[in-house]
Protein backbone atom coordinates (compact mmCIF):
# COMPACT_ATOMS: atom_id res chain seq x y z
CA UNK A 1 0.00 0.00 0.00
CA UNK A 2 1.36 3.40 -0.96
CA UNK A 3 1.35 6.26 1.50
CA UNK A 4 0.31 9.72 0.48
CA UNK A 5 3.76 11.05 1.35
CA UNK A 6 5.49 9.16 -1.43
CA UNK A 7 5.11 10.82 -4.86
CA UNK A 8 3.87 8.67 -7.69
CA UNK A 9 6.18 8.23 -10.60
CA UNK A 10 4.84 9.60 -13.86
CA UNK A 11 4.99 7.51 -16.89
CA UNK A 12 6.78 9.25 -19.76
CA UNK A 13 4.72 9.42 -22.91
CA UNK A 14 6.29 9.65 -26.34
CA UNK A 15 5.39 12.73 -28.43
CA UNK A 16 3.64 10.50 -30.95
CA UNK A 17 1.03 9.59 -28.36
CA UNK A 18 -0.30 13.16 -28.28
CA UNK A 19 -3.44 13.02 -30.35
CA UNK A 20 -3.49 16.49 -31.90
CA UNK A 21 0.22 16.90 -32.53
CA UNK A 22 1.82 19.46 -34.82
CA UNK A 23 -1.23 20.24 -37.02
CA UNK A 24 -3.13 21.56 -33.97
CA UNK A 25 -0.24 23.81 -33.02
CA UNK A 26 0.05 25.13 -36.56
CA UNK A 27 -3.68 25.76 -36.64
CA UNK A 28 -3.47 27.73 -33.38
CA UNK A 29 -0.79 30.02 -34.82
CA UNK A 30 -3.54 31.64 -36.86
CA UNK A 31 -5.87 33.75 -34.72
CA UNK A 32 -9.35 32.49 -34.06
CA UNK A 33 -12.57 34.26 -33.04
CA UNK A 34 -11.63 34.35 -29.34
CA UNK A 35 -8.26 35.90 -30.15
CA UNK A 36 -9.93 38.57 -32.25
CA UNK A 37 -12.40 39.31 -29.43
CA UNK A 38 -9.53 39.64 -26.95
CA UNK A 39 -7.66 42.00 -29.26
CA UNK A 40 -10.81 44.09 -29.80
CA UNK A 41 -11.47 44.21 -26.05
CA UNK A 42 -7.87 45.26 -25.39
CA UNK A 43 -8.04 47.96 -28.05
CA UNK A 44 -11.34 49.19 -26.60
CA UNK A 45 -9.85 49.34 -23.08
CA UNK A 46 -6.81 51.23 -24.41
CA UNK A 47 -9.07 53.76 -26.14
CA UNK A 48 -11.12 54.21 -22.96
CA UNK A 49 -7.92 54.74 -20.95
CA UNK A 50 -6.72 57.37 -23.45
CA UNK A 51 -10.08 59.14 -23.29
CA UNK A 52 -10.03 59.10 -19.49
CA UNK A 53 -6.48 60.45 -19.51
CA UNK A 54 -7.50 63.27 -21.85
CA UNK A 55 -10.52 64.03 -19.65
CA UNK A 56 -8.20 64.32 -16.64
CA UNK A 57 -5.87 66.65 -18.57
CA UNK A 58 -8.84 68.81 -19.57
CA UNK A 59 -10.06 68.93 -15.97
CA UNK A 60 -6.56 69.90 -14.78
CA UNK A 61 -6.36 72.67 -17.37
CA UNK A 62 -9.78 73.99 -16.38
CA UNK A 63 -8.82 74.00 -12.69
CA UNK A 64 -5.52 75.71 -13.53
CA UNK A 65 -7.39 78.34 -15.55
CA UNK A 66 -9.80 78.98 -12.66
CA UNK A 67 -6.91 79.35 -10.21
CA UNK A 68 -5.10 81.72 -12.54
CA UNK A 69 -8.18 83.87 -12.87
CA UNK A 70 -8.75 83.96 -9.12
CA UNK A 71 -5.16 84.83 -8.26
CA UNK A 72 -4.82 87.33 -11.11
CA UNK A 73 -7.78 89.21 -9.64
CA UNK A 74 -6.20 89.12 -6.18
CA UNK A 75 -2.84 90.35 -7.48
CA UNK A 76 -4.52 93.16 -9.37
CA UNK A 77 -6.53 94.16 -6.27
CA UNK A 78 -3.34 94.14 -4.20
CA UNK A 79 -1.62 96.47 -6.67
CA UNK A 80 -4.60 98.84 -6.64
CA UNK A 81 -4.68 98.87 -2.83
CA UNK A 82 -0.92 99.41 -2.58
CA UNK A 83 -0.97 102.24 -5.12
CA UNK A 84 -3.87 103.98 -3.34
CA UNK A 85 -2.10 103.58 0.02
CA UNK A 86 1.17 105.08 -1.20
CA UNK A 87 -0.65 107.87 -3.04
CA UNK A 88 -2.64 108.65 0.13
CA UNK A 89 0.55 108.85 2.20
CA UNK A 90 2.10 111.18 -0.37
CA UNK A 91 -0.98 113.46 -0.46
CA UNK A 92 -1.29 113.50 3.34
CA UNK A 93 2.39 114.29 3.67
CA UNK A 94 2.17 116.96 0.97
CA UNK A 95 -0.70 118.76 2.77
CA UNK A 96 1.15 118.37 6.10
CA UNK A 97 -1.53 116.20 7.72
CA UNK A 98 1.20 113.73 8.60
CA UNK A 99 4.89 114.35 8.92
CA UNK A 100 7.12 111.90 7.07
CA UNK A 101 10.75 112.58 6.31
CA UNK A 102 12.05 112.63 2.77
CA UNK A 103 13.91 109.38 3.44
CA UNK A 104 10.71 107.60 4.43
CA UNK A 105 8.85 108.93 1.42
CA UNK A 106 11.71 108.00 -0.90
CA UNK A 107 11.82 104.51 0.58
CA UNK A 108 8.05 104.17 0.42
CA UNK A 109 7.74 105.27 -3.19
CA UNK A 110 11.00 103.90 -4.53
CA UNK A 111 12.29 100.66 -3.11
CA UNK A 112 9.03 99.39 -1.63
CA UNK A 113 7.17 99.99 -4.89
CA UNK A 114 9.89 98.25 -6.88
CA UNK A 115 9.86 95.29 -4.48
CA UNK A 116 6.06 95.03 -4.53
CA UNK A 117 5.81 95.30 -8.30
CA UNK A 118 8.71 92.86 -8.71
CA UNK A 119 6.98 90.39 -6.41
CA UNK A 120 3.73 90.75 -8.33
CA UNK A 121 5.63 90.30 -11.60
CA UNK A 122 7.26 87.15 -10.25
CA UNK A 123 3.91 85.74 -9.11
CA UNK A 124 2.16 86.65 -12.36
CA UNK A 125 4.98 85.11 -14.40
CA UNK A 126 4.59 81.89 -12.39
CA UNK A 127 0.82 81.93 -12.84
CA UNK A 128 0.79 82.56 -16.56
CA UNK A 129 3.77 80.59 -17.81
CA UNK A 130 3.14 78.33 -20.78
CA UNK A 131 3.15 74.70 -19.58
CA UNK A 132 2.64 73.17 -23.03
Question: If you had to describe this structure to a student in words, what would you say it looks like?
Answer:
The protein has 132 residues and is mainly α. It has one domain (32-127). 73% of the residues lie in helices and 0% in strands. The protein contains three helices and no strands. It has helices at 21-29, 33-94, 102-127. Helix 2 (33-94) runs antiparallel to helix 3.
Index terms:
132 residues
Question: In terms of topology, how is this protein built?
Answer:
Layout: H1 21-29, H2 33-94, H3 102-127
Helix pairs in contact: 2-3
Helix content: over 70%
Mean pLDDT: 80
The total of beta strands comes to 0
Taking all Cα atoms into account, the compactness measure Rg is 39 Å
SS content category: mainly alpha
- Distance from first to last alpha carbon: 77 Å
Sheet bearing the most strands, described? none
* Low-confidence segments: none
Morphology call = rod-shaped
Number of discrete domains: 1
Count of helix runs: 3
- Strand percentage lies at under 5%
Order of helices and strands: HHH
Amino acid sequence: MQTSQQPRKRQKLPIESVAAGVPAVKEKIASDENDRKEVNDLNHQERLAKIEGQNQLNKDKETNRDLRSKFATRVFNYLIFYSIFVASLLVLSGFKYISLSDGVLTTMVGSTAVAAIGLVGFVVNGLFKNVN
